[in-house]
Target: Cytochrome c oxidase subunit 2
Amino acid sequence: MKQWLYCLLVVLFAPPLAASDMRYNMTPGVTEISGKVYHLHMTILYICCAIGLVVFGVMIYAMINHRKSKGAVASHFHESTKVEIAWTVIPFVILILMAIPATKTLIAMEDPSNADLTVKVTGSQWKWHYSYFDQDIEFYSILATPRPQIEGNEVKGEHYLLEVDKPLVLPVNRKIRFLMTSEDVIHSWWVPDFAVKKDANPGFINEAWTRIDKPGIYRGQCAELCGKDHGFMPIVVKALPEAEFEAWVKEQKQAADAAAQAAQAALSQNLSKEELMTQGEQVYLGHCAACHQPNGEGLKGVFPHLKGSPIAMGPLGAHIEIVLNGKAGTAMQAFSKQLTTQEIAAVITYERNAWGNNTGDAAQAKDVDAHKSGGTNSEPVATTQPPSTTDAPKAVTEPIASVDPASLPTLTHEALMAEGEKVYVTFCAACHQVTGAGMPPAFPALAGSAIATGPSTNHIDIVVQGKTGTAMQAFGKQLTPQQLAAVITYERNAWGNNTGDTVQPADIARHGK
Model:
């Protein structure tokens, strides 16, 4: 009997003593809130365990002592007021006892007022952007796990997939307010040691806060399925004593000044193609390979290839433009604030000469800077338009309605199809796919669609004006009438659509009247 009693005491009281050290249990964390969440979790767990013990204990007792083989006869009773009151009141009381501490903890978790420091956290595929409001410091934090480890060619490190190039640095003993948002899809910023897990939604701002009690390095990751590299989006927070944090802030400002001076000095440098290729490969693997793949072949139907692509093989200015400013309506981000002019020049040089592209081009930092400066003028230095079978048209700088239809050329169906395919691959294939199959329901198919096989005026209207409430952009100010006519002609005759329609640039101009 004593042995059974001892075992029961071990079962009941050993778990609370060792719970905080259990590998799969919630962590107590290093903040007051995380401690409250942990204790609330354990309290609810023990209440549930106690209920389970009572319920299953009564069931087992009844099955053993009131079984038919012992001659037990079941009692018959119906509509017992006492039983109904008991099974209503007892759960209600238990829920109230659980709700009181839970409500207190939730209210405390949602109170970011009177913060000492505010940090804006912006998620994007697949990195975090941190901005310190009062310190004028901002930087991107990306995965630092070496590619050979990810590909299985090296032994995985201690913090595999939980290490970054630049951690978020925070002071201890200060209330820190987080503002969470996203540039593309829904992400979720989650650091278990802080008991902070908040969604970062595009177009919205969510709030959270923490006050770290203990210096150290704390790790987390994106907790929302955000795309192909969801598992490669870690969070690392370095908590420093207040004096060390202030010293870090000064170091960051000095580093920013030094980086500005280095960027200015880079404008007068001409690196060799070999130097640019070496640096460019490192930048590419760190910032671009997640989408376009290390071999430059992309992911068909999702991320376009760079090997032999119109961008990497076409005009240098167009390549610089898309890397600097991204491409609206696609996953292509703007890297003008993420990389230095020297890094952008290097990665463009690499993309234009790797995987057999061999253009021979060597972009310099001054070329990128000139494009930045030129982009603020009325006439852009370069556009993102693909090569044409005729003279390459300029970017649209005036409304289509003001273009004289009589001034536009009349092209053959074959010429329009050839140019239209190039325009489509550059501007449309990222969403509607090279095959025209789209990615329903997000991006509709064009092969056999009502738009591509219906009245051409409807087709022209949606390409020129876009469609409100969807991802379909207005291309009336992005493409020339000739490019618009070409891509519409291509869409109406490719992938088996075969309408036989030939849309001329003059048709586009007349449509805008």
About this structure: The chain has four domains: 11-60+84-110, 117-241, 267-374, 400-511. The longest helix spans residues 32-65.
